[in-house]
Automatic annotation (TrEMBL):
Domain of life: Bacteria
Portion annotated as DNA-binding: 28-47
HTH tetR-type domain ranges (all copies): 5-65
Short name of any one Pfam family annotated for the protein: TetR_N
Taxonomic placement: Bacteria, Bacillati, Actinomycetota, Actinomycetes, Micrococcales
Keyword terms: DNA-binding, Transcription, Transcription regulation
InterPro entries per the UniProt record, alphabetical: Homeodomain-like_sf, HTH-type_TetR-like_transc_reg, HTH_TetR
Originating organism: Paenarthrobacter aurescens
Protein name stated in the entry: HTH tetR-type domain-containing protein
Length: 217
């Protein structure tokens, strides 16, 4: 039995496995239906095309992290508080990186498919670009008070997405996401402040992320 509360969830799980293991182009809707144990016609009751399946899977890789990043970005106090600014960026990096590291399938490898640039996937691209924009805003906010590079947010975004390739190569460790978050703060020149930043970032995740298990590592 595949994980999932509904047949739709099971179809998405099967599609995720096949798309990431044998490629999008090489996967047919019949193969997905067979992997779930249903008729192909039953699959079409839930998804009319393979592109629709891909679009939902891609969107799912961003939606949770984007919702968290929006909330954290709106949760601003004193703009001169280095610890608070650092904690916001650290929390977003840790949360987003943990999503990419710990999801059942490494769906991030689908980001660079030529098909992902098609018009039907524009909602996914828009969400990913918004997430990247928030990274940039948080990075500039921290750079202004820590006197670090103003491109810190974009660097953080790229470091998080590099976890996708590390996972594809079998190089992900239990602490990969937390190490990435720490690295961003070290690049900002805040190595000595890391213990306080970690604690404050963990509190943001507890308050707004609903995923306390992400703090492992």
């Amino acid at each position: 039995m595949r994980p999932g509360a509904t047949a739709r969830d099971e179809i998405l799980d099967a599609a995720a496995e096949l798309f990431t293991s044998q490629g999008f182009a090489n996967t047919s809707t019949r193969a997905i239906a067979d992997a779930v144990g249903i008729r192909q016609s039953s699959l079409y009751h839930h998804f009319s095309t393979k592109d629709e399946l891909l679009g939902e899977l891609l969107g799912g890789t961003v939606s949770t992290s984007l919702a968290f990043a929006r909330t954290v970005n709106d949760h601003k106090g004193d703009d001169r508080d280095v610890l608070a600014a650092a904690a916001r960026l650290h929390a977003v990096v840790l949360f987003d990186g943990s999503q990419l590291c710990n999801s059942r399938w490494n769906l991030g490898v689908l980001y660079h498919l030529p098909e992902a640039r098609a018009r039907i996937f524009q909602p996914f691209m828009a969400a990913r670009n918004e997430l990247r924009t928030i990274y940039g805003e948080l990075g500039r906010e921290l750079a202004a008070v820590a006197r670090s590079d103003a491109s810190l947010g974009d660097t953080a975004f790229r470091l998080v997405e590099s976890l996708i390739n590390l996972r594809a190569d079998g190089l992900i460790a239990a602490d990969s996401a937390s190490t990435t978050a720490d690295t961003v703060l070290i690049l900002a020149g805040l190595r000595e402040e890391l213990p306080g930043v970690r604690a404050a970032g963990a509190e943001l995740i507890r308050r707004f992320g609903g995923l306390p298990e992400l703090m492992a590592g």
